[in-house]
């Protein structure tokens, strides 16, 4: 068994207890977020508007940050919410088009992240204000490469 497969299987265990996880793992994005975070809910709404099925699960901050670490998206890669799309980790305000591309191309990687909370990213809209940001592909060894740039 590859290290990536083992790590993802272990990290996804908290999601496995959710109803219908196995049957819908490829089509449903499961989002774990703090119950008080409005931008996370707004991001989930953007994904739903783009055609994704979403399940939003409110969890305590300690559990959320522990999950991020288990999934390999701690520290500089982290944002305010963590999701699973199939076997991929989706961290932060990743645009729906980037997730669609990830699922279509299926690279050997842990997933995608938009570190921090860039203004103008999906769910972080503030009128016409926008800051450029990159969606990073997180590779199995924890390194990253730019997957998409947004301005």
Q: Mind telling me the C-alpha Rg?
A: 14 Å
Element string (H = helix, E = strand): HHHEHEHEEHEEE
Figure out the total of helices: 6
Which structural class fits the helix and strand makeup?
alpha/beta
Major sheet: size, sense and barrel closure? 7 strands, mixed
Q: What is the arithmetic mean of pLDDT?
A: 85
Shape: globular
Which sequence of strands runs across the widest sheet? 2-1-3-4-5-6-7
The rounded distance between the terminal residues' Cα atoms is 39 Å
β-strand number: 7
Tell me about this structure.
- By secondary structure, this protein is α/β, with parallel strands linked by helices.
- The protein contains 6 helices and 7 strands, in the order H-H-H-E-H-E-H-E-E-H-E-E-E.
- The protein has a 7-stranded mixed β-sheet, sandwiched between helices.
- It is globular and about 35 Å long.
Summarize the structure.
The protein has 151 residues and is an alpha/beta fold. The protein is 33% helix and 26% strand.
């Amino acid at each position: 068994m590859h290290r990536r497969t083992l790590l993802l299987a272990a990290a996804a265990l908290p999601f496995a207890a959710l109803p219908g996880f196995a049957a819908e793992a490829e089509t449903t994005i499961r989002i774990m977020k703090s119950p008080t975070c409005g931008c996370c809910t707004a991001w989930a709404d953007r994904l739903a508007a783009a055609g994704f099925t979403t399940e939003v699960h409110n969890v305590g901050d300690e559990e959320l940050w522990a999950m991020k670490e288990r999934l390999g998206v701690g520290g500089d890669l982290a944002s305010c919410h963590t999701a699973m799309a199939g076997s991929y980790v989706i961290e932060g305000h990743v645009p729906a088009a980037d997730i669609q591309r990830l699922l279509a191309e299926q690279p050997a990687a842990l997933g995608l992240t938009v570190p921090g909370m860039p203004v103008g990213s999906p769910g972080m809209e503030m009128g016409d204000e926008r800051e450029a940001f990159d969606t990073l592909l997180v590779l199995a060894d924890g390194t990253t490469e730019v997957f998409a740039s947004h301005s």
